[in-house]
Amino acid sequence: MSSAAASEFEGVSTLPALLDHAALRYGSLNAIEDGRVFTYTELAAAVREAAKAFIAHGVLRGERVAIWAPNGWRWIVAALGLQSAGAVLVPLNTRFKGREAGYILRKSRVRLLFTVDRFLGIDYRELLRGERLPDLEETWLLADGGGADGWDGFLTSGHGLDSSALEERLRQIDAEDYSDILFTSGTTGNPKGVPTTHRQNLRTYEIYTRVMGLSAGDRYLIVNPFFNTFGYKAGWLSALMRGATVLPHAVFDAAEILQRIERDRISVLPGPPTLYQSLLGLPGVEQYDLASLRLATTGSSTVPTELVRRMKADLGFKTVLTAYGMTETSGVISMCSPADDVETVASTSGRPIDGVEVRVIDEAGSEAPPGRPGEILVRGFNIMQGYFEDPQESARTLDGEGWLHTGDIGVVDGRGYIRITDRKKDMFIVGGFNCYPAEIENVLLSHPDILQAAVIGIPDARLGEVAKAYVIPRPGAALSPEAIIDWARAQMANYKVPRAVELRAALPLNASGKVQKFLLKNDAAPCGSPPPGAL
């Protein structure tokens, strides 16, 4: 931390200590508004009540507790409560099926699970029926009412616990203890657990919130799911660090988001590019009062310059920032700053945050020259020590010098700004030429009638692979696959031009708003080979 930050957060070395600090500093300000309103003082009291219940249920320091539920105030109170009892938070993706959730519960040996009975028509407890869960002893519902297995019933169990037991547990928690284990998406196999410590998260998000300019009184609508770093650490944890008000939102709907911005006077709205594209693509967006919007943070290998301009001009954001991070880096590697121009914000992910180093290496493992693409390596205070109880995967990702091999392809320019080209694994080769989907997508998104685009490589008999594009047209646009291909031939090298285009009303997105390209690949058929000389 900077000296100013060290002074502001002096003595704050754990997440429970951060909440106590926030209660002292921002006590009468609203911390959460979600049907029920909590001031910072009231939130700290609610978390202490929850922590007592966790201790009464025998939860030990370092033990894992899982939350499998949509965004809501109880999610936050439960998370901070278990962390105040010294336990480790294990969030579960609300889109998981029983087999996926069961794997993580077994791998992390969770003893207590907090979930909901239904969300989007899904009964989570029913999904787990039949799963072998030898360590899971208790399942509680984060729901209204005082049922035997409800949140109120859970809290009741801690009412008889002496406060001295909680104070002793709080004293035992160390800055180097794990605060959470978030599991990766499992795109290269089974999900891998990423543990991070209290100290890592506090330092990372002190920098993140300071650079982005989050401040007391901001009204922070969190659409990003709490189970990932964007909704949890860059979301409600960041808000509590700076005295902002958290307004959770469980299910994305563009019209509902616009209504909430107007009604709740939202000033901060982070999200993936698809979130803003959906808002801008909604007919009648100009009829909403969006004057309260101030700050947006986003990130992706593809952030069109025109999107950033429209976020400012049409949605009214004063500041739009891009950032880059991974679960393995506590969520943040680099950030743009409010002083950066639109082109820099759109085309880069900013510079490494303080205390973090970045290298770019070529396929031989040598340092790539400035401006030359290569794999991005990261080293610093924010890097995980290794995957949870998985030394083999840890050794594949972390080298002997402490560098994390991200698997992302990118370049670093002369100013030190990072530009992500693509995921290493997403690259495909067309007749000997390397193709990066993000580069092609960025060009397609410059077409005035294209709202969203996703590109994959599909098999081709002569060239090995060629590009296929999935395109969502702007409302009212008259587009054909042939017209898009013809347009693309004038915009990019022939080997990059999509040989097939499929128009769609929507793309398959995960709960974080990212396109699930594996679903597109499952549906894609091989492309007919172009005539010789087409390249």
Can you offer a commentary on this structure?
The protein is α/β, with parallel strands linked by helices and 535 residues long. The protein folds into 3 domains: 39-197, 3-Layer(aba) Sandwich (Rossmann fold), CATH 3.40.50.12780; 252-424, ANL, N-terminal domain (Rossmann fold); 428-523, ANL, C-terminal domain (GMP Synthetase, Chain A, domain 3, 2-Layer Sandwich). Helices cover 31% and strands 22% of the residues. It is built from 18 helices and 23 strands. The strands form 8 sheets. A 4-stranded parallel beta sheet has the order 4-3-5-6, covered by helices on one side. The radius of gyration is 24 Å and the shape is globular.
